[in-house]
Structure formats: C-alpha cells, structure tokens
Amino acid sequence: MDLFDRIMELSRCGYFCSQIMAILLLETLGEDNPGLVKAMGGLNGGVGYSQGCCGCMTGGACLISYFTGKGEDTGMDDPQHKLALADFTQWFEEEMTLEYGGIDCRDITKGNPAKRVEYCPQIIAASFEKCMEILTERGLL
C-alpha cells in the first residue's frame, strides 16, 4: 500500500492529520504507542480544532522531536534538534503559504470543510515525507 492510500485508510478510520503522521511514524519504526496517537489528537484541526496552525506543521515538529528532543531528566536535546525543526518549519511555511495562502487551517481550507478532503491528505503526505527526509539526512532514522 502506498503512502497516500494508507493516509486515506487512516482518515476513513477517523484519524486526523497529526494522528495520521504519528501512526505512519510508529508503523515505520515497528512500534505501537496508542498514548502518543491520542496525544497527537490535540493538534488536529489547527490545535484543538481552533483552525489555527495546521496539525501537519505541529505534528511534524513532534515527529522530529520524537528523535531529537530531551526525554529524560539527565538527557539533553540532540545537537541537531533546533536545526532539524527549523528546516521542517521553514519548509512547511514556505510551501503552504505558496500553495494555500498560509499555515493555519483557516488559511488552507478557507472555511470550507470539503477542502479538508481535497487538500489535507496531500499535505499530510508531503509533511510526513519531509520529516522522514530531514531525519534520514541527519542519520537520525
């Protein structure tokens, strides 16, 4: 099954952008973490369905941080943490602003729920692929 088909399958199961990205990452790693998938649901619909910052941008930042962020009291962020996040967020802002007029859900969908069906799967796929590219280029994945 290709990436787009898997995204559509997960969408039909009721998952949204950031949750789908988390599931795709977990599947890539061969891991299962329902708590992470649930937590990522808070980013859906532009952070808590507020129509704010797209869940693919915030979800992508979380995916990168899954590998680079501090996770223990005595640990530290990976030295590449901020640069990897900056690469992703800069890419996202440039691409989404050029294609859709901004990075907020309200900018992307223009308030039309039908646009979610049209645009969001493509944005999820592109965002997930960009995260994987950034992580792979840095030897983190």
Shape descriptor? globular
Order of helical and strand elements: HHHHHHH
Biggest sheet: strands, sense, closure? none
What is the residue-mean pLDDT, rounded to a whole number?
95
Q: Can you tell me the number of structural domains?
A: 1
Low-pLDDT runs of 5+ residues are none
**Secondary-structure class:** mainly alpha
Helix content: 55-70%
Total number of helical segments? 7
Number of strands: 0
Amount of beta strand = under 5%
Give the terminus-to-terminus CA distance: 21 Å
What is the oligomeric state here? single chain
Radius of gyration: 15 Å
Please supply descriptive tags for the structure shown above.
single chain; 141 residues; mainly alpha; 7 helices; globular
SSE arrangement:
Elements: H1 3-12, H2 17-29, H3 34-40, H4 55-68, H5 81-100, H6 105-109, H7 113-137
Helix pairs in contact: 1-7, 2-3, 2-4, 2-7, 4-5, 4-7, 5-7
Write a structural description:
The protein is mostly helical and 141 residues long. It has one domain (3-69, 76-137). The protein has 7 helices and no strands. It has helices at residues 3-12, 17-29, 34-40, 55-68, 81-100, 105-109, 113-137. α1 crosses α7 (113-137), α2 runs antiparallel to α3 (34-40) and α2 packs parallel to α7 (113-137). The radius of gyration is 15 Å and the shape is globular. The relative contact order is 0.16.
